[in-house]
Automatic annotation (TrEMBL):
Residue ranges constituting the MgtC/SapB/SrpB/YhiD N-terminal domain according to the UniProt record: 22-143
InterPro entries tied to this protein: DUF4010, MgtC_SapB_SrpB_YhiD_N
Name listed for the protein in its UniProt record: MgtC/SapB family protein
Domain DUF4010: 191-400
Length: 429
């Protein structure tokens, strides 16, 4: 529930009950105005923006009181008219600053003030921060835009089409034997694989390899460790200079998997959280320790070839992997039909190849409904993680090559030893 400053100050029913809204409006206007003042514009700066925002708030309040919607429209036209006023001489960087930017910023400030006057204060403040960020980061955004080649923009358009045009059109229901083929779910995997590769390409371009790799590993672990492993194994195979980057991203993503499963347990089956922690924490701890030791040893090695970024054009590989995913889904449904609930471990063994979350969420829901004891839950999740790790190692070896696979193998082994050791310890309790 949002914090009500008016109630805290006991302003309700007093002449000052609108004071919090007016102060919020001034604050948003000042935030944008400070950034514009740095441009030394004669059109609008640190005084004009707060006044324009305050005008929007006052007119919105009058509109609510008088019921005359024309007041807000008249105010908007008046602010737009400021764009026709003459502007003083500019110098330095300001000579390249389009005047339309300040005019649009004034219109946004007025609109944000109106939103505050109509009661949408939290959203208006958030949009004010975003607006100021866009204005302030012009050099960085312009520099990044100029570095994008034509095929980069085509990749962005391709990803947008895959995500926002094709994906919503696909039916989210099962077809075929056992209703195992779900077009929406299969295409979502295509979107994830393409999206992970594209996000990694953009992040390394913007942040550099040292900053980008930990961020990519963390985000990849939250989204899909399988897709992340596939994308960066392919990158390592096509670009020898990306071996170190690919190794760090893949290993960090697979360590984040343990954290993700722990968070899912806390959210869905909190009573199983401690038991899950006993198997997730040792696996993640030993894996991170191995990554740390390997990275320290790697510092003494000869320098790797320089990283050369290439835009990841991996739609064909994503489609092929999605087809494999659909086949595994069918096999999982077939085994479940053969063995029923008693074959839960067999289902975990097969379904864990392509998706740890699906079987994990299933057993967590069964546990929360008291239909499954804790220890079978832990065993099922451990089998799924183990199977998924073996499958990902096979992907890395077959696509990324022997060198990348050997870089990843010690961390995978130690993480699985830690997880299985935790499972053994949990069975003793």
């Amino acid at each position: 529930m949002p914090w009500d400053l008016s109630a805290w100050l006991q302003l309700a029913g007093t002449p000052y009950q609108s004071l919090p809204a007016l102060l919020s409006s001034l604050g948003v206007g000042l935030l944008i105005g400070v950034e514009r003042e740095r441009k030394h514009h004669a059109l609008a700066g640190i005084r004009t923006f707060p006044l324009v925002c305050l005008l929007g708030t006052l007119l919105a309040m009058l509109t609510s009181t008088l019921g005359s919607a024309w007041l807000l429209a008249a105010g908007l036209l008046a602010i737009a008219g400021l764009g026709f006023l003459p502007v003083g001489a500019r110098s330095g960087d300001d000579a390249n600053e389009p005047r339309t930017t300040t005019v649009i910023a004034l219109l946004i400030a007025y609109t944000l003030g109106a939103m505050i006057g109509l009661g949408n204060t939290e959203l208006a403040v958030a949009l004010g921060v975003i607006t100021t960020g866009l204005l302030y980061l012009k050099p960085e955004l312009s520099s990044f835009t100029h570095r994008l080649a034509r095929h980069d923009l085509l990749s962005l358009l391709q990803f947008a089409a895959l995500t926002f045009i094709i994906l919503p059109l696909l039916p989210n229901q099962g077809f075929g034997p056992y209703a195992a083929f779900n077009p929406h779910r299969v295409w979502l995997l295509v979107v994830l694989i393409v999206g992970v590769g594209l996000a990694g390409y953009m992040a390394v371009r913007m942040l550099g390899e040292k900053v980008g790799a930990p961020l990519l590993g963390f985000m990849g672990g939250l989204v899909s460790t399988t897709a992340t492993s596939l994308v960066y194994a392919r990158e390592a195979a096509s670009n020898p200079g990306s071996q170190q980057l690919a190794t760090r991203v893949i290993l960090l993503a697979n360590m984040v998997l343990f954290l993700r499963l722990q968070l899912l347990t806390v959210a869905i089956a909190p009573r199983a959280a401690f038991g899950m922690l006993l198997i997730m924490l040792p696996g993640m701890a030993l894996g991170l320790l191995t990554i740390f030791i390997s990275s320290r040893r790697g510092q003494a090695r000869d320098g790797a070839p320089e990283l050369e970024l290439k835009n990841p054009a991996q739609l064909s590989i994503a489609l092929g992997f999605a087809a494999l995913f659909a086949v595994v889904m069918l096999c999982s449904a077939w085994l479940k039909d053969l063995f029923g609930d008693s074959g839960l471990y067999m289902v975990a063994l097969v379904s864990g190849i392509n998706d740890v979350d699906a079987i994990s969420l299933t057993v967590m829901e069964l546990f929360s409904k008291q239909l499954l004891p804790l220890h079978p839950l832990l065993i099922t999740v451990a089998i799924a993680v183990l199977t998924n790790t073996v499958f990902k190692f096979g992907l890395i070896f077959s696509i990324g090559g022997r060198t990348l696979a050997l870089r990843c193998l010690p961390t995978f082994i130690m993480a699985m030893i830690g997880m299985l050791g935790g499972l053994w310890f949990a069975a003793l309790l």
